[in-house]
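Notes from hallway chat w/ T.B., transcribed later so I don't forget. T.B. wanted the structure written out for a chain they're using in a teaching module, and asked if we could keep both sequence and structure tokens in one place. Agreed to drop them here.
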Amino acid sequence: MHAERAMAESTERTRMEREITRDLNSLEHITVMLDEFSREHRISDADRFSLALAIEEIITNIIRHQPKNNSAIHVRMNGSVDRVVITIEDPESVFFDPTAAKDPKVDLPIEERKPGGLGIFLTKRVMDEVRYEFHEGTGTTTLVKRLES
């Protein structure tokens, strides 16, 4: 019985969610939510930094590359003892799969590099998983981060 309870607690999830407008100032609301979520889950500063970087990059790309869309962006944070799953839904969107974006040539001198792509590259580096789905006009990016012990 004790083992069953411990197993249930280790898989138990906590969820927070927000809807934000398509405005870069709305990122502040997600930062506040992530801070609260991080405190609640005792997420290390390093993991919190990785999560913040990835969330900001994905949402910034959504806002900048689809400015005519007025739909709210839905952000969900799910946590367990060993990982965090962030889901960012972009309704009425145009298909764009960040996981398919080519990595920039970071080994080139800065003068020879093409602008763009570095944020998605960093997101893929700091997250353990980055997934994208597109269904009935909604793009969903899922970010998974295994937490430090």
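Follow-up for T.B.: The chain has four helices and five strands. Might be a good example for the class.
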